[in-house]
Amino acid sequence: MKLLVTGGAGFIGTNFILYWLAHHPEDDVINFDKLTYAGNLENLTSVEKNPHYRFVQGDICDAEHVSEIMKGIDMVVHFAAESHVDRSILEAAPFVMTNVVGTHVLLAASLKAKVRRFHHVSTDEVFGSLKLGSTDTFSERTSYDPRSPYSASKAGSDHLVRAYYHTFGLPITITNCSNNYGPYQFPEKLIPLAITNILEGKKVPVYGDGLNVRDWLYVEDHCRAIEAVLLKGTSGETYCVGGTTEDINNLTVVKKILAMMGKDASLIEFVVDRPGHDRRYAIDWSKIKNELGWQPQHNFDEWLKRTVDWYTVHGEWWHAVKSGSYQAYYKTLYKGAV
Ligand code: NAD
Ligand code: TYD
């Protein structure tokens, strides 16, 4: 089988490619990635000489290049996106371009190339925000209610993917997954930002009152969920994917990391809240469990600690990532507060 993985030099795409080549060594994987600030080929040096792996630098908005690369592809696994909510608040245009227009370019090329499956990697953020203290959860039946430019652009792409199924018969699947953590995550996201700031002796910025709740999933569990959907999922279906954390708020996550690293709460800096900050996410992943037999295998406390250890021993990786343009972004976003 020949897979086209878009955005394979980013956090989840990298973990997916490493997972897929290890578990399906007979398959060919093409990694098509623009290498934005979030793409890093260093992540994939261990497979760059593997004859079943090929990297192609390209933009999913480039229709000519995309249709060229699509020839002979069996399955598309679409990760490429602008993925950070805070950046979408600073500048939304690249989110509309890559997430909406780029996804459309891929869909049109996939239809023309008659791929066997177009799998779209989406987020639980398309469902909006749940009330703090409620027991409500997002499921495949929840109405879309995106509230940030990031989630609105992902929602737009989900709708286009379903439109290509209903209107043109393109075989598609979608996963809407909660917050991932693990190796190779760009340190603009909460968990790697907290760990690397602590390693640098800096404070950890916590937005607002720190009581916002996310559902956390170890990245390899997400990769296994996508594998299950690719191999056993039904075309046209959506699957919600989530972890085992139960209403754990950001402050608790940061305090756990501080404790694991032998530090106390004095390193927490409450900073001005994110505009439109979604209060609570929670996922009902019973459909993928009942229909495809998938469930998370990685316990949060244990794998958070392993993630802390990964960043601790991979200083070179994140020091390189946190230099250059990251510094300017950090100053703009946090306005010198941390
Ligand atoms: P990331 O930002 O780490 O990586 C994105 C990758 O896409 C980068 O390698 C980047 O170079 C590439 N890219 C960006 N624009 C491109 C373009 N126009 N053409 C080709 N490549 C381009 O993102 P991530 O955290 O790995 O997320 C991957 C996907 O999973 C995204 O679609 C995201 O919405 C979704 N998702 C992420 C999470 C999470 O917690 N990180 C949770 C659920 C869903
Ligand atoms: P993030 O990792 O950006 O993921 P998302 O916004 O897609 O859920 O943020 C996770 C949570 O952590 C979210 O509620 C915002 C919060 N947060 C902070 O409190 N401080 C920070 O510096 C960052 C980046 C996020």
Description:
The protein is α/β, with parallel strands linked by helices and 338 residues long. The chain has one domain: Rossmann fold. The protein is built from 12 helices and 13 strands. A 7-stranded parallel sheet has the order 3-2-1-4-5-6-11, sandwiched between helices. The longest helix is centred in the N-terminal third of the chain and has 20 residues. The chain is globular and about 55 Å long. It starts with a strand and ends with a helix. The model has no long low-confidence stretch (mean pLDDT 98). The structure holds nicotinamide-adenine-dinucleotide and thymidine-5'-diphosphate. Thymidine-5'-diphosphate binds next to helix 6 and strand 8.
Q: Mind summarizing the main beta sheet?
A: 7 strands, parallel
Strand order of the largest sheet: 3-2-1-4-5-6-11
Overall structural class, as computed from helix and strand content, comes to alpha/beta
Q: CATH superfamily assignment?
A: NAD(P)-binding Rossmann-like Domain
Q: What's the total number of strands?
A: 13
Distinct compounds present:
nicotinamide-adenine-dinucleotide, thymidine-5'-diphosphate
Radius of gyration of CA atoms, rounded to a whole number: 19 Å
Instruction: Tell me the count of domains.
Output: 1
Shape, please?
Answer: globular
Integer average pLDDT: 98
Second CATH tier, the architecture: 3-Layer(aba) Sandwich
Furnish the topology, listing elements before pairings.
Blueprint: E1 2-6, H1 11-23, E2 28-33, E3 53-57, H2 63-69, E4 75-78, H3 85-90, H4 93-112, E5 117-123, H5 149-168, E6 172-177, E7 179-181, H6 190-199, E8 204-207, E9 213-214, E10 216-218, H7 219-232, E11 238-241, E12 248-249, H8 250-260, E13 268-271, H9 286-292, H10 300-313, H11 315-321, H12 325-334
Parallel strand pairs: 1-2, 1-4, 2-3, 4-5, 5-6, 6-11, 7-10, 8-13
Antiparallel strand pairs: 9-12
Helix pairs in contact: 1-7, 4-5, 6-8, 6-10
This protein binds nicotinamide-adenine-dinucleotide and thymidine-5'-diphosphate (TYD).
Thymidine-5'-diphosphate is lined by residues 85, 179, 189-190, 193, 205-207, 212, 214, 250, 274.
